[in-house]
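queue> pop job 88
queue> type: inverse folding (structure -> sequence)
queue> payload:
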């Protein structure tokens, strides 16, 4: 049984929001530039492309960010990926890019402020 199916079962059985949140967290694969959302918080976005791309981090009001969220980006293809600040967002270390089989993490540290490591 997959972890997601297990967590969805816990949520359906009434074990609360925490299990439901983790069942819904973002585990997705993309092959072109995209925009982060609350569904990506504490999940894993796999970038699989031969072209370089970006994951735009929208501002708090647009995305609904309200706490210390974490976005994790994994590069499985040869094209590298990076985080890009949306309108009104400050992105520290914004020049960092993934490398093949590597990770890049963005952490919300204040209102409309993120740090990339």
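queue> result:
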């Amino acid at each position: 049984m997959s972890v997601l199916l297990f967590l969805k079962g816990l949520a359906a059985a009434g074990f609360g929001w925490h299990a439901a949140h983790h069942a819904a967290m973002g585990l997705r694969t993309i092959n072109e530039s995209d925009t982060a959302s609350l569904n990506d918080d504490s999940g894993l976005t796999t970038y699989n492309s031969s072209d370089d791309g970006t994951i735009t981090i929208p501002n708090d009001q647009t995305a609904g960010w309200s706490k210390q969220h974490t976005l994790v980006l994994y590069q499985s293809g040869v094209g590298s990926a990076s985080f890009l600040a949306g309108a009104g967002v400050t992105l520290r270390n914004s020049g960092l890019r993934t490398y093949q089989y590597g990770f890049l993490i963005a952490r919300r540290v204040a209102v409309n402020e993120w740090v990339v490591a």
